[in-house]
Amino acid sequence: MKFCRFCCLAAALLHNVALLALSPSAHAWGCKGHQVIALIAESRMTPHAYQSAVRLLKDAPMGPNLPRYCGPKGLDAFADASTWADDVRKLRPGTSPWHFIDIPLGAAKRDMASYCPPETGCVTSALNQQLAILRDSSATPQARADALRFLIHFVGDVHQPLHAASNNDLGGNCVPVTFFGHAPEESPPGSGSFHPNLHSVWDTDIVEHLSRKQPSFELARDLQRKFRSYLETWQTQPANFATWAWESHELAERVVYRRLPHPLPIEGPRPMTACPVQKSGPSHAGRLQIDENLAEPYQNAAAPFVEEQLAKAGVRLAALLDSLWQ
Predict the structure, then answer these.
(1) What is the Cα–Cα distance from 181 to 163, expressed in whole angstroms?
(2) 24 upstream amide cis, omega within 30 of 0
(3) Dihedral sign for Cα atoms in the order 147, 148, 149, 154
């Protein structure tokens, strides 16, 4: 158990480093994915809940000098808040492990705390913590507004499969892939970090490819139409962050990894210092030789699940916030 906890802590700390180093893969679901989730949520929230959320965000705005990777791009305060948690990590690096939970492939379903190091936290513990702050009427307006921004973002993160799974690869960051002819390149040279990689493809590329330059609001509208027969069921389910994380983990095992052209063997969890760069074996450079060439077959297999996770996250976020402002 002590070894397992050490593995989880090491993976969390290094996953933190990898996500900060790799951009835009540091932005789970990318700009469009997180914005779509927020837009779906606000369209499903009660008017009272939506107005309460927007009032809180406007009364305690994010810092005006914070560099924004995505930018508001005409979005309202609620949708714009969906990507703030990624931007603020540069100022608050201790929040980086809050974006994911590294459940090893092949792990048995059990208490999520087994995979959530208390020293760093993880996405499920962060969701609970930020929800508690948002519910605390004695907390400052700024603390509650930031908690809402974290909550909007982390509900999205926990629905991204590679934010709930790892195979000694920092959530897929150490699996270089070719995506529609774009071959992986090491940057900077000798670093062991390649783009594209499996994580960045699921964060951003699959969403961008399936949306074909649609604006975020159009994709949000289309996804609600596509999944309209499921929306009510998702919205009436009780919020269970551990259940959401396990659903994403199972999706990672069943689709993300298993549908690869060359499925990788499941490895026993072990401490990592970075993506390995040796020339052979189950390493980053070794995996480069496998030539994971992702194109139409993989995109077609992945896209329906990506769409469903985006829609489900938006609807569940709406239900969660409705329960706060009844």
Answers:
(1) 25
(2) yes
(3) positive
Question: Which of 44, 29, 39 lies closest to 315, judged by CA?
Answer: 44
H or E, element range at 179: strand 178-179
Smallest Cα–Cα separation from 323: which of 233, 236, 245, 241?
Answer: 236
How far is the C-alpha of 225 from the C-alpha of 134, rounded, in Å?
31
DSSP secondary-structure letter at 306? H
Residues 6+ apart with CB under 8 A from 160: 28, 29, 33, 202, 203, 248, 309
Instruction: DSSP letter for 6, please.
Output: H
For 294, list phi and psi in degrees, rounded to 5. Answer: -95, 125
pLDDT tens digits for 67-124? 999 977 789 999 999 999 999 999 999 999 999 999 999 998 877 788 999 999 999 9
Domains and CATH numbers, the chain: 2-324 (1.10.575.10)
Tokens of 274: 């970075």
Question: CB neighbours of 200 closer than 8 A, spacing ≥ 6?
Answer: 22, 24, 25, 173
What does pTM read for this prediction? 0.89
The helix or strand, by DSSP H or E, that contains position 296, with its residue range, turns out to be helix 296-324
Paired residues of 186 in beta bridges: 194
Q: Among 278, 317, 272, 312, which Cα is nearest to 9's?
A: 272
Distance in angstroms (rounded) separating the CA atoms of residues 22 and 184: 13
Backbone angles phi, psi at 22, to 5 degrees: -100, 120
Integer Cα distance of 121 and 179 in angstroms: 32
Residue 33: which H helix or E strand, with range?
Answer: helix 30-44
* pLDDT tens sequence across 238-275: 999 999 999 999 999 999 999 999 998 998 888 776 78
| Phi (first) and psi of residue 222, to 5 degrees | -65, -35
d(CA 311, CA 304): 11
Quote the tokens at residue 131: 């929800």
For residue 36, pLDDT beyond 90 = yes
What are the start-end ranges of the E strands in 187-306? 194-195, 293-294
